[in-house]
């Protein structure tokens, strides 16, 4: 069974997708790429703050699916400039500070996202 996860605490998806998907038969929860947009629709002009929002959104999706950050086995992250890497990595390290086992992680530099103000996007794969 597939269970779409779209926490009420997050801004609605930008298109026809769910913020997360829990696949009970497989024991996997996948999040869509989360952008640094607050629930009120505002977007900070700081990469670190955007990354923090990304991780808060991922945590909300995981909670909605009955999981926590400790269930993450893989993170894929994207930034639009190398200079945003330290701020992203700081936010990632803070978000995973209480996780006894750190997930696999990939960070890719991309040319941009759907809106110019976005600097960071993060997606997660969790198991249960």
Automatic annotation (TrEMBL):
It comes from the Bacteria. This is Enamine deaminase RidA, house cleaning of reactive enamine intermediates, YjgF/YER057c/UK114 family. Gene3D superfamilies: RutC-like (3.30.1330.40). It holds the Pfam family Ribonuc_L-PSP.
């Amino acid at each position: 069974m597939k269970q779409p996860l779209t926490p009420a605490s997050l801004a609605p998806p930008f298109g026809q997708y769910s913020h997360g998907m829990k696949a009970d038969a497989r024991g996997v929860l996948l999040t869509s790429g989360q952008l640094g947009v607050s629930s009120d629709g505002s977007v900070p002009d700081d990469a670190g703050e955007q990354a923090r929002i990304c991780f808060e959104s991922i945590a909300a999706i995981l909670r909605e699916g009955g999981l926590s950050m400790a269930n993450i086995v893989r993170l894929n992250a994207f930034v639009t400039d190398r200079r945003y890497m330290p701020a992203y990595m700081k936010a990632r390290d803070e978000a995973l500070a209480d996780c006894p086992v750190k997930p696999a992680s990939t960070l890719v530099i991309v040319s941009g996202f759907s809106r110019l103000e976005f600097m960071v996007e993060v997606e997660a794969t969790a198991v249960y």
